[in-house]
Specification:
Gyrase A, domain 2, 60% helix
């Protein structure tokens, strides 16, 4: 089939322009419509992602708060355990006995020629002292010094301490104030 266009050339130009305008309008409308559809789609995707991020942030804050709470509880438990151990150590230190002042006082009373070999102390305030004296007189001076000291009482010496004149091995029993060990 043959198409004949009997319109004048000016009308043909107007018709061609009208046809071109319609195509431009159609493609522009399609492009604007497609852009609007894509914008709506992107907005929906953005809203979904934004909601997911808010939920994730909320979950993260909740998880961090619970971890901090657990860490705080763990730290409080550790502090409580440490305080209990420190209380036990403090109780042991209060029960501690200080032998240094008693030994220093005893060492000051020992005259020349007398050597101390052993000392046994009890918490009840009794002591057993053994030693060696070159002469009996030195031992007797030491025994007299112990008896006259205000720190030591009830000095007892068995008779076997007096059997020899020289190279005397002796043993003494005496009492002391147990409170002197707590200072």
């Amino acid at each position: 089939m043959i198409k004949l266009n009997l319109l004048p050339p000016e009308e043909k130009k107007i018709l061609a322009l009208e046809k071109a305008r319609r195509w431009v309008m159609f493609y522009s409308s399609a492009l604007i419509g497609l852009t609007l559809v894509l914008a709506v789609l992107l907005s929906a995707i953005w809203l979904y992602v934004h909601t997911q991020l808010k939920t994730a942030d909320t979950n993260l804050v909740t998880a961090q708060a619970s971890v901090r709470g657990q860490d705080l509880k763990n730290q409080q438990n550790l502090i409580t355990q440490l305080n209990n151990k420190l209380a036990k150590i403090n109780a042991l230190q209060k029960k501690r006995k200080y032998f240094s002042p008693l030994l220093a006082s005893l060492a000051e009373l020992v005259p020349g020629g007398v050597h101390l070999e052993g000392l046994s102390l009890s918490d009840q305030g009794t002591a057993v002292l053994s030693g060696f004296a070159q002469k009996r007189e030195q031992f007797l001076i030491f025994k007299q010094t112990l008896e006259s000291s205000p720190l030591f009482t009830d000095v007892a010496s068995p008779l076997t301490n007096l059997t020899s004149q020289t190279d005397l091995t002796f043993s003494l029993q005496f009492k002391f104030n147990p409170e002197t060990l707590n200072k």
